[in-house]
Design goal:
Blueprint (H helix, E strand, L loop, with lengths): L1 H56 L5 H28 L6 H62 L1 H20 L11 H46 L4 H24 L3 H13 L11 H33 L14 H7 L5 H32 L4 H4 L2 H17 L18 H6 L1
């Protein structure tokens, strides 16, 4: 009794699996009626965007370039259609693990080839103009950083004018003290006074030279900002990006010249040289004291002044060298790039466009996997079921008709010793009808 129950359960499971397999086969037959058309549409769409991407790479706009772009896009469309058609037919049909692994490896390799020959060009067609505009905007930002850096260094160098003025004021104050006899003890405009006045005049000239740079610095920075404003306007202006790139390149050359001018306007090297000359080039005046004691006092005072002079010069030198040691602005050079190169360079900013460009080429891979799963389900439903149980009513009728035709064509009496053909199972019509 238990054996009969087990046999009945197994029979019911086989029947359910067989019905499921037939249902899936019916769905696949209906889907297969338009799968080829859908695959062709995807291939043609990819070819169109590939044509647009190739066109953006070709400088020439003549008939030969158009023909070359069309030939490439047609080859891509045909290649995509044939590749996925092969996989749609072959991968679901294979059964061994080695065959499946081999076809899956082939699908992965072919997908990489499709991305290399088509997807990046599709992305260039989808987001090429926006990627070039992104390149322009990034270049503007880099130029702005360089301009501000150059201006910061130049302004810091201009601040050295206050240090020069402070040193000059100290020498002028010492000169006033010497004029009243507060340093050497000899009132008047003697040797010590002339030395102090000499250095104060040198520093005054340096201070005036530094101050004369300020209007030039302000004008250069204002011009640089004006150029940056025009460059930003070109970045977002309507119209073809290629024409805007040409004008953008011209403005970039002008801005590079302004940045160079700002770097040259820095007075820090001038202050370093002047500070070194301040103590190195000293013209000692003739001592004009009335006696040896007075001249000895003047000499001692001049030695003290020279010591102070060296200290002040060292202070100015360190301040100017600190400005010179500031990191200079980066050398920015605008390089025009094509839409395809821009899409690759700024790929992180255009992930949706890249996803769409790749999806239009690799979407059939999902169909291949779906069909493979469906075919595996069909095989699982048919495994273990006898051949006569898998026959449909139409197939059974055809088999019966063929059998009758064979019996009609055969001799009425079988040859001596020949076995009669086995009778058909009596339950085949009922099971086929199920």
């Amino acid at each position: 009794m238990a054996r009969m129950d087990d046999s009945s359960d197994r029979r019911q499971a086989e029947d359910r699996g067989l019905r499921q397999a037939r249902e899936i086969e019916g769905h696949l037959a209906w889907l297969d009626s338009f799968t080829g058309t859908a695959l062709g549409v995807l291939s043609v769409a990819s070819g169109i965007y590939t044509y647009l991407g190739v066109s953006s790479l070709l400088d020439d706009t003549g008939a030969l370039s158009v023909f070359a772009a069309m030939a490439y896009s047609i080859a891509v469309s045909v290649g995509i259609f044939v590749f996925w058609s092969y996989l749609l037919r072959l991968l679901p049909a294979v059964r061994s693990a080695a065959s499946r692994i081999g076809l899956l490896a082939s699908m992965a390799l072919g997908s990489l080839a499709i991305v290399a020959m088509s997807s990046w060009l599709n992305a260039a067609a989808l987001a090429g103009a926006a990627a070039v505009e992104q390149h322009l905007a990034t270049t503007v930002q880099n130029y702005q950083t360089a301009l501000e850096r150059a201006n910061t260094i130049a302004v810091s160098a201009q601040a050295l004018g206050r240090d020069v003025a402070r040193v000059r004021g100290s020498f002028e104050d010492l000169g006033e003290q010497e004029a009243s006899g507060g340093l050497s003890g000899l009132a008047g405009r003697g040797a010590v006074f002339r030395l102090l006045r000499q250095k104060a005049d040198e520093l005054s000239a340096l201070e005036a030279q530094i101050a004369s740079q300020q209007p030039l610095l302000d004008a250069a920075f204002a011009e640089g900002n004006a150029i940056l404003s025009r460059m930003r306007a070109l970045t977002v202006a309507p119209g073809p990006v290629e024409a805007r790139s040409v004008e953008f390149s011209e403005e970039a050359v002008r801005l590079a010249g302004v940045i160079t001018t700002l770097r040259q306007l820095s007075v820090a090297p001038l202050v370093v040289r002047a500070a070194r000359d301040l103590s190195a080039s000293v013209v000692l005046p003739q001592l004009d004291g009335g006696d040896d004691a007075a001249r000895s006092g003047q000499r001692a005072t001049i030695d003290s002044v020279l010591t102070v002079l060296g200290q002040r010069a060292e202070t100015l030198t360190r301040a100017a060298e600190a400005v010179i040691a500031m990191p200079p602005p980066a050398d920015i050079t605008y390089t025009p790039i094509s839409a395809a190169d821009a899409v690759i360079l700024y790929a992180r900013n255009f992930v949706p466009s890249w996803a769409g460009a790749i999806a239009i080429d690799l979407l059939p891979a999902v169909l291949v996997l779906i069909v493979s799963v469906a075919q595996a389900a069909i095989r699982a439903g048919r495994d273990g079921v006898a051949v006569e149980d898998r026959m449909t009513l139409a197939e059974l009728r055809g088999a019966l008709i063929a059998l009758r035709e064979i019996e009609a064509a055969a001799p009425a009496d079988p040859p001596q010793g020949a076995a009669a053909p086995p009778p058909l199972p009596s339950d085949i019509p009922a099971r086929a009808a199920e």
